[in-house]
Amino acid sequence: MKPLRSVDVQLKVNQQTVDLTLSDAATLLHVLRNDLGLNGPKYGCGLGECGACTVLVDDMPARACVIPAMEMQGRDITTLEGLGNASSPHPVQQAFIDTQAAQCGYCLNGMLMMTVALLRKHPQPTDTQIRQALSANLCRCGTHIEIIAAVHRAAVLMNVHTA
User: What's the mean per-residue pLDDT of the chain?
Assistant: First the structure.
């Protein structure tokens, strides 16, 4: 096993450039949560399987728990916090609020980030497209019907915002 070393890294997170000195083994999730205080992405499985840690990298969904942070230089990283906030939520966030699509909330970060990516690709998705897009995000509370309704609501809200 090779020894860990410190690496200077410049990341662009939520439209802000940050300079950090990190261990070369640091994952993007670790940096987001522990160094930058961004707690939207959650630690779930640590294997990139559950979706709780999902962020957007160059507008594509990515599992932050398995991505080396130092490989994210020059990339545009968006976390849940970069979408909107309590006083000005992103349409997807507002749709999940409107439909009460969260129960425990642990999967919510991944569901929201995947929904943003889905709606950028398919502005009016079918139930099948929604199920397929969210199928790799685990929800143990069983709010799947509400989540599907939230995605449809988000599509409406996003269409209103772009019209």
Answer: 93
Q: For residue 124, what are its two tokens?
A: 């009016």
6-82, which class in CATH? alpha beta
For domain 84-162, the CATH superfamily is [2Fe-2S]-binding domain (1.10.150.120)
> Residue 84 phi/psi, 5° resolution?
-175, -175
Q: What is the pLDDT of residue 162?
A: 59
Q: Read off the tokens for 13.
A: 């997170």
* pLDDT at residue 142, as a whole number: 74
Verdict on whether the full-model pTM lies above 0.90: yes
Residue from 35, 38, 3, 41 nearest 137 by CA: 41
